[in-house]
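Incident log, structure service

09:12 report received: a user says their structure output differs between two submissions of the same chain.
09:20 pulled the input from the user's history:
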Amino acid sequence: MKMRSPIIITIITAILAAASIPAVFAQRQPSANEIYIDKDCRRNQQLQFDKFTVFNQNEFTANGQKYWFYAGRYQDGGVLFCISKPNFSQPKVLNAEKIQRQFIDKIVRDPKNQTAFIIAVREGNGPGAKTTNYLLDLSNPDRPKVTSLSININSNQKLLTSGGINQTSANIETTSFP
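09:34 re-ran on a clean worker, output below:
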């Protein structure tokens, strides 16, 4: 019985290992339902890196024009808020510093105002992280208005009740962005 040469075994092992490397580093193909945007809110399904996956999209009308308000989540969990005309036409990053690039738990349309959204911003990851609810008013999309509805609520509390906003703090703060 012949013993195989250690060199041949090494070569075969190297070939098998090299053949498996592309599978290990291959990027997952986007599903038909996933939409990717870049850091400037432009739709781009070909992005491999630095992509945001759209997880929330709403259409609303302001000043007689239709707009899309959408949010994309980055791989680290931070969220990019965007606004555009329908079909991602003329996209731009929403100028709303308090909510931009934060951890977002929920986004819901305000039941009393179709151009406003209630956004739960979580201050960090992990259990017990505090959450602040904000009202984002897009009645003038070029000048979004962000109002703090409640501060430092436990992230397990409900954002909305069936009757409307669940406010737990009397502290109200409004900020308009240029």
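09:41 both user submissions now match this output. Likely a transient worker issue. Closing.
09:42 reviewer note: Residues 19-28, 155-178 have pLDDT under 50 and may be disordered. Residues 6-25 form the longest helix (20 residues).
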